[in-house]
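Class, discuss our next protein.
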Amino acid sequence: MVAPLIVFSAGFLWRDSRLLMAVNLLALAGAVTLGALRRRELHVHRAAVTDYAGGAIAAGCAAAAGAVHLLHKDIEWEDVGRSVRSERMSTLARGAALGLPLVALFGGLFMAADAVFRSLVAEALPPLTDPIGHLVVVVAVAWLSAGLLRDLLAARDEHRLVSPGAVAAKRIPVSLGTAEVAIALGALNVLFLAFVLVQFRYLFGGRGLVEARAHLTYAEYARHGFFELFAASVLVLVVLLAADTLLRREPGHGAATVRVLSGGLVALVFVVMASALQRMHLYEQAYGLTELRLYVVGVILWLGTVFLWFSATVLRGRRGLFAVGAVVTGFAATAVLNVVNPDALIARTNLDRPRVDVAYLGGLSDDAVPVLLERLPTLRTDLRKSLAVELLERSDEGADWRSFNLARARAISLLAEHREELVQLTR
């Protein structure tokens, strides 16, 4: 758990993209789930999907309600009160009561005497425009952190609020025979095969065929359906995992038939994902790249890796290895996103297009600023002026040390260095 926690927490100090922060948060949640699986009788690399689900549920319950147990049973309040009443604490309290008014008095004088000192103090101190809102956020984060840490640091499973083992051990009351599962998977195979044949004829067949049949441009045809195909790919994985979990292990060749049908469905899903990627490629050529499109493409590529791992484990009767492989590939995909720098890639790609949406590029995070400044001299005159205005507006925004990251610090430095050049371009 510790390694991914450190790596993906460092991502908040490295990149500035909000979507990338959300992806890093998901990776941190996966790391916490790994920590929740800490049980002697079960190695993490042998944990099933249900075990990971139990770990996630246990961690979520601990974060939500673990602080209640901590405050009610774990803390000896009498000992806390005794330490507060000790001579050392009394001395600290008296010293603070004397020192804080003096600091406020002389600090006010120094702020009135020096504008630079006043601006530094104003940046260092948190704003008091919404004290209740800040207090609510602090209390909420402290509550969730206390409950989660109490659970992760518990010496024994029975000391935890909810045991992941107890959650995972609960059997699903429903099971399916091989015939039922085979019929359902066979029907899905037929449907996917029909769709794949259409894709080979129309999407992969050429522009003229699509425009004559669907009365849409090639880009419009590609646009309609990308997210639906993405959703279908995700749902197929859920269906296959559910089928493997609910399947009754009966004697005979039924299980082998189910595996063959599952393997055929996986092969067809690869064609569906290829169709989705082809649609996105055509759509990106026509309309450019955006954060949402890039991240969905990244998820599809990750899903392809997961399906390969599914074929190598579950379809070969080694489903105990599937869950940890899916989690590790998720960690790897998140790390790749941090290295690739999505916003910079979007800026670089869109600036190579004949039509450039300057307003969208100007709204990207500070991760894109170095690319925008580097490519600025190569743009047309009207685009240079519009982009220079966007960058100057960004340079006038104040920086807050509490939201510091390396990308923002570099952007501020570069914008200050090129400010005169940007001003000249706006005239």
Remarks:
- The two ends are 54 Å apart (CA to CA).
